Amino acid sequence: MKLRYPAIALAAVLATALAQSPAPQQPAAAPDPNANNSNKRVNDGDNRTSFWDCSVPGGNFTIALGKIASVSIHEFSVAGGRVTEVNVDTDGSVCARFYFMEPMSVGGALSGTQVVKDRLTEVAETLTDRTGTDKVWKKVVKDYPLATHAHTVEYRLQSAADVAAIHVSVKAAWTSGRGRNIRIVDAQ
Q: Could you tell me the residue range of the domain that residue 68 belongs to?
């Protein structure tokens, strides 16, 4: 059978094909680290520099975006709990680690250890309340000289959500090439 109107047939085929092709997808937006922090403990936003600047209750870490070699987030178990950790590896000799350690629940494999840990925590809090010092047990504990000579800078955070917010912030700064400031304040 000979087609009389080949141009019309071609147009009909093209129209059918185009109508069936899916619409182009928009790239997924990065999660907003401030979305789940209605109390504004986490404040993250762009800055006009080429640096990522992070302030947390344990200190401050600032790095030029061009010096970031890798950014990672992962979880792992240790004796006594579960750790969520972000690593910011640099072209220099320092690796920054931001982590939260969730203690093992009572009734777990090391529940006796947990009872002792809870009691030590209670005594430490009582002591810090009396002396007016910071909560010592919340500070990073390093295994000197191993951690010091490993060139790590460590920050212990108050929640896994804080760690996730840091990951989103540093990754957004690094991949976009735009500086960012993130501030996480101590929850009282």
A: 40-184
